[in-house]
Structure formats: C-alpha cells, structure tokens
Amino acid sequence: YALSQALPAALEHGELFLEYQPIVDLNDGTTCAMEALVRWKHPVRGLLGPGEFVPLAEDTGMIVALGRWVLRRAVEDAASWPPAPNGRRLMVAVNVAVRQVHEPDLCTDVTDALESSGLPAELLQLEITESAVMNPGEGGRPALETLQALSELGVRIAIDDFGTGYSNLAYLHRLPASTLKIDYSFVKALTQPAVTRHDSAEAIVTSLITLAHACGMTVTAEGVETAVQAAILRNLGAERAQGFLYSRAVPHDRVPELCSGFE
Ligand code: G
Ligand code: G
Ligand code: MN
Ligand code: NA
C-alpha cells in the first residue's frame, strides 16, 4: 500500500530507471535486441525489481503513466545505441501492460516517442503478455484493434510469457504479432532432473514452437541459463534466446559492450 502511494512521486523524482537484457540469435550468437526492465531505487527500501511494484501500479492505474515513461526512456536510449559489428541496429523491447493496451492514447504515445527520438518503428518491439491480448474485454478498445494499429505503424509485437495463460488458438492466429516468447518455466523444465522433470517438457516446447511458426511468428525462449538449454532450444527450432547464460539486465551505459553478441 505505502509503495503504491509513493510511486507517482518516485517517477517524478527520477527514482525509476531502466536496465537492459540482451536477446540473442541462437544460430550465430549475435545480439538482436535489448529488453527494457524497470527498476526502482527506493530511498529507504533499496533497489526494487518490477515484480515488487509493477503489479501495484497495475492495480492503481499508475501503470499507464509508468508505462508511458518507460516507453519514452527506452526508445530514446535505443536511438543512441551504436550498430552491431554486422551493421545491424539493435531493437528495443518494451513491456506493455494490459491497462496500456486498453488506453486510447497508446498509439499516439508510441508515434510521439518514435518521432521525437528518431528511432525507426521496426526497431521497437512491444511485449504484451498472453493473458493481456487474450482478454479483449475490460471495457476498453478491443486488444486486436489496438495491436493492428500498432502493427501498421511498423512496430513489432511479441506475445510475452506464452504458455502460462489460457489461449484461444484461433485468436492467436489472427494477432499481428511477429514473435512468441516462450515462458521461462518451460525452458527450466527442459533440463530438470529426471525425478522432478515433467516428462513432456520437450514435447510441449516443440509444440509451442510449431504453433508459433504455423502462425508466422519467430520464437524467443526466456530464462535460458545453461548452454544445454540453448542447444536443445536451437535444435527444436527456436530462433532467439534470452537469459542469464548470456547476460543479466545491465545499466544503459553497458549496452554497447553487449552489442556485438556472444561468441
Ligand atoms: O525483474 P523481474 O523478474 O522481477 O520482472 C518481473 C516482471 O516485470 C517481468 O515479467 C517483466 O516483464 C515485468 N516488467 C519489467 N519491466 C516492465 C515494464 O516496464 N512494464 C511492465 N508492464 N512490466 C515490466
Ligand atoms: O516476464 P519477463 O520476461 O518480461 O521478465 C523478465 C525477467 O526475468 C527479468 O526481470 C529477469 O529478472 C528475469 N530473468 C531474466 N533472465 C533470467 C534467467 O535466465 N533466469 C531467471 N530465473 N530469471 C531470468
Ligand atoms: Mn517481457
Ligand atoms: Na516473460
């Protein structure tokens, strides 16, 4: 309760900041994108992760202002990143909460952020959780309509935490999304010891990848911590991975050293 009360002032006083975690091409190890992850440097409670305050901000509606700030900051940061050695520029991935998707201003906010920073639309990926896109109700604009408008701007859409919600697969097929992010829980299950391991972990990941590809989406696996997991995912056809194997989230000034990739 106290934390959620303090959040508006914290945002105004510059206590929030972003870190970036690389998203890596599983085939050649190059860095494709950086995901922006918000943190709160609380004057009394110390460093807080998004898990500790994003849900509170979602409950109070503060997530709309917070999300708008994250979007601006991340897009501005990304506009300044140097190209990788292969000449390609990094994309920036920004998490968008369900409340933001139902805000009529989201497309305008995105357009404004791109225009004022000069970042090309194709270099912005908006990450929307599976449950957010699959719940088109909530009184706002239908999620599908908003996602279509964003997609027409040239922005990429990724479905985040896939496999943890209850998806309407017919609806999934209609989403203008280019990427499906497989939730870390499935990645973890791939290499869990035989006794506790869910026997069908590999079969589930295989079918998620098949499903994504059938819908014309590429796959990013989250929470990859070991080279064995990365090898399995690559063999199963996942295109990209993200996780501690490559890097934790780093402050903005360390992004350039991660641009070239991982062997
Ligand atoms: O760092 P941690 O594992 O605690 O992250 C918890 C969750 O917070 C993640 O699922 C991540 O997607 C989410 N998150 C991180 N940054 C943002 C943000 O800027 N906006 C929203 N809506 N969620 C975020
Ligand atoms: O849900 P989302 O993917 O947006 O959340 C990303 C969060 O997952 C980050 O905040 C980070 O703390 C956490 N994370 C990133 N990589 C790994 C990893 O390899 N292992 C684990 N356990 N958590 C990770
Ligand atoms: Mn995410
Ligand atoms: Na996730």
Would you kindly provide a written description of the structure presented here, covering whatever features stand out?
It is a single chain. This protein has a single domain, classed as EAL domain (TIM Barrel). Helices cover 42% and strands 21% of the residues. Strands 1-2-4-5-6-7-8-9 form an eight-stranded mixed barrel, surrounded by five helices. Helix 3 runs parallel beside helix 5 and helix 9 packs across helix 10. It binds guanosine-5'-monophosphate (2 copies), manganese (II) ion (MN) and sodium ion. One guanosine-5'-monophosphate binds next to strand 6. This is EAL domain-containing protein.
Label this structure with key terms.
single chain; 263 residues; alpha/beta; TIM Barrel; 42% helix; binds guanosine-5'-monophosphate; binds manganese (II) ion; binds sodium ion; EAL domain-containing protein
Rounded to an integer in angstroms, the radius of gyration calculated over CA atoms is 18 Å
Strand content: 15-25%
Question: How much helix is in the residues?
Answer: 40-55%
Q: How many structurally independent domains?
A: 1
Terminal-residue CA separation = 45 Å
* CATH overall fold name: TIM Barrel
Mind telling me the CATH superfamily name?
EAL domain
Number of strands: 10
Biggest sheet character: 8 strands, mixed, barrel
What ions, cofactors and ligands are bound? guanosine-5'-monophosphate, manganese (II) ion, sodium ion
Going across the major beta sheet, what is the strand order?
1-2-4-5-6-7-8-9
Domain EAL: 1-263
Organism: Actinospica acidithermotolerans
Protein name: EAL domain-containing protein
